[in-house]
Amino acid sequence: MSVAIELRNITKRFGNIIANNNVSLSVNNGEILSLLGENGSGKTTLMNMISGIYHPDEGQIFIGGKQVSIRSPHEAFEHKIGMIHQHFKLVDLFTAAENVVLGLKEEGRYNIFDVVEKVHAISDKYGFDIDPTKKIYEMSVSEKQTVEIIKVLYRGADILILDEPTAVLTPQETRKLFAVLRRMRDDGKAIIIITHKLHEVLSLSDRVSVLRKGEYVGTVETAKTNEAELTEMMVGKKVELNIERTDPVDPQDRLLVKNISCINREGVKVLDDISFTARSGEILGIAGIAGSGQRELLESIAGLQHLSEGEILYNNPKTGSTDDLRDKTPLQIRELGVRLSFVPEDRLGMGLVGNMDIVDNMMLRSYRRGKSFFLERQGPKDLADDIVQKLEVATPNTATPVRKLSGGNVQKVLVGREIAASPTVLMAAYPVRGLDINSSYLIYNLLNDQKKNGVAVIFVGEDLDVLIELCDRIMVIGGGKITGIVDGRCASKEEIGLLMTKSSGGSEND
Amino acid sequence: MTDNKKIREPLLRITKRPSIVWWKAWIILAVAILAGFLLGSLVIYALTDCAPVKVFKSLFDGTFGTERRTWFTLQQTAMLLCVSLAVTPAFKMRFWNIGAEGQVLVGALAAVTCIVYIEDMIPNWLLLIIMVGSSVIAGMIWALIPAFFKAKWNTNETLFTLMMNYIAMQLVSFMIMVWVPNGSSVLPTQEFGWLPAILDKKYLFSILVVVVLSVLMYIYLKTTKHGYEIAVVGESENTAKYIGINVKKVILRTLAISGALCGIAGFLIVAGAEHTITKDTVGGNGFTAIIVSWMSKFNPLIMAFSSLLIVFLQEGSSRIAETYSLSDSISDIVTGIVLFFIIGCEFFINYKVNVRHSVKAAKEDK
Questions:
Q1: Cβ A364–B239 below 8 Å, yes or no?
Q2: Of A206, A458, B5, B250, which sits with the fewest C-beta atoms within 10 Å of its C-beta?
Q3: The pLDDT of residue A254 is above 70
Q4: With contacts defined as CB-CB under 8 Å, which chain A residues touch B9?
């Protein structure tokens, strides 16, 4: 096997921050290399240097044994390097084939039929399942990803880099993708896959290179390693990877959602006859492909969505009364005495204000207190100090704008604030997205603590392993409908995966 | 080696600064202002053969040369500052109010109307109070109309407020025609409704009013619940809704304050300086105020300095234009150049430009 690309002693700094320090690694032709590391460990930065987006401050890159300098994504293509980003860069109104040739400067007349032919040829060769004449906006996430991969193959890429390709896929789609990647490997391509999911690393790759906080930790052969060893390399210490799950104590119906439907601005029914009950002292998980109505569901409960049908009943444990929250504003809901906390998916766009410091962000929930015309800053300041200390938020001080914090720390600030409001219902949408292992487990523990305190927790997650380990019940939604509610203690990943995909087929049959 | 050429790093690379020490930022700003002045005086030099040093001197002479000029400069600064204060809460809320020109003008019109119809029927102090009241209400109405449409139907406030300016101007022309039906169509200087002179200084009263307003605005934005709500709505409307802020209410309330302050500015212009009205009475301050407000990052105290700088440039260079019989546009050119440098220096505060260290690389090759 020949070496496709080799990095020697690469260092990259952003201001005072060292994103990559003296990293060396290599990939052979006909090999899949996993690049493993927590968030902020410098994986994406390293790959961006290969694909010409950044330029290394020190170190050399060799392709096919020759030293090169990659100064732009265009030059990366000339070296037959293709990167598939996490966020797709496609034109929605164009077909797959049109997107594939977009930006290419080929000799001669442009003939879309030739392109379609060539796309078909590539698809057949590697086993893609794609219609080149389909428009992007009609495609599922997995199809869009396929178009991105074909795009780089069409340009003749021999070295493929995939940045967290499975983050948006269902288990079934992931399996399909892996089959394709293996076929490409057998065809002699060099593939680098960035990920932090250990089981994927173990099932797919030939070798694993691990980064930790910008430092290169080492490379091991997949066959000779295991999950525990890789975790230790990744975090630097042994981590207990089990989430405790206590049995719910005295669960009571806290929130009753009855037959709610919601139609969005485009006239699409995003929530369709959803009914469920959230109980105190219990974690209710919500699983589903991204964009199946999770956001709208939580926002309806929080008073941010207008419902077309149904009701949302809240049993107040203090007064014993039952209130309908439908079509109430967040303020009205609060004035009813409902202690509802909500960790939204969009942390800096909704849950927090990026340009404000931690203290001012604490104030979002509490600034109305008291009759004074002026703000009271001491309470929020104390709360901010408390959260920074208890949740180990890495920040110079509480006067730092939250947008300058890393993803995990932003989330700690947000979750900390929402929990500090001592809620009776806590809703969290993708609370560990983008967080490293340690921060993720901290968040799981916080949710568990709330459960033990008798809070009704609603947890929207994407990692099925975690949902199964953490939640008492898991509600699966697809296309705005409930496709099943399963017991977290005896559910399997395959079962949930099937329920997740059921909707799209289901709605067509209706 | 022939390969050497190929593997060089790019000539210029731009990287974001993680943070910058405050004094470095100030140095960059000072250098930018200086460079702006230099280029500005070079332009004047090219047109008049007047040495750059002399240009500076003339600038200063035109603004602070005599006591009369100094007071005039301060009065102009106060007026610009007052309008800047007025637009600030709206812009902090990201409501693109470019209608301050019209809001000030209707404020001025309301004041003049009071003078024309009431004259000396009541004591001067009472007249002044009625003038203030009607100016405030007029400015408020002019700002609330676009705010209401924005809150209710999400109309584009930029176009709306801009169009309100033209309506205000035509309204002024119309009223002047009513008051001066024949002849010059210029409203003569009015005898009544003058602000009292303090310590014999004609402009001092209005300057003091603006100083008090600056402090109040600073407190309002920094320490009150209203100010906090304005900041949240401005940063992210989604967050505002999420925590239960009534966004429509905040928009209306903030624009009412913004318009009221514009009205006060209009009143001060009439009662403190002009004692008459034309459709150019505001003289573009409504637009310049937007620059002042943004340049000062919505800080009322910094706005005082920014206003002074701009008035200094404008007044100073129009003095030069007079002396050398140049077009009055020269003042706009010089002001534009300096502003360009000040705003452009933000880039160097936020980013660092790295030049390829070619010498070092060449040495290492040997």
A1: yes
A2: B5
A3: yes
A4: 55, 69, 71
Q: Give rounded-to-5 percent helix, strand, coil for chain A.
A: 35, 25, 35
As for how many domains chain A has, the answer is 3
Query: In this structure, are residues B26 and B342 in contact, taking their beta carbons and an 8 Å threshold?
Result: no
Touching A: B residues 340-359, CB under 8 Å = 352
Tell me the ipTM for this assembly. 0.78
pLDDT digits (tens, 9 = 90+) for A101-111: 887 777 777 78
Q: Mark whether A59 and A151 lie in a shared domain.
A: yes
pLDDT in tens, B207-247: 999 999 999 999 999 999 999 999 999 999 889 999 989 99
CB nearest B224 (choices: A67, A360, A373):
A373
A244 in any annotated domain: no
- Mean pLDDT, chain B, integer: 85
A313 reaches B (C-beta below 8 A) = no
pLDDT confidence of residue B4: 44
Domain boundaries, position A15: 3-235
Mapped onto helix, strand or coil, the DSSP state of residue A205 is coil
Please tell me the distance from the alpha carbon of residue A355 to that of residue A375, in angstroms, as a whole number. Answer: 18
Q: Per the domain annotation, does A188 fall within a domain?
A: yes
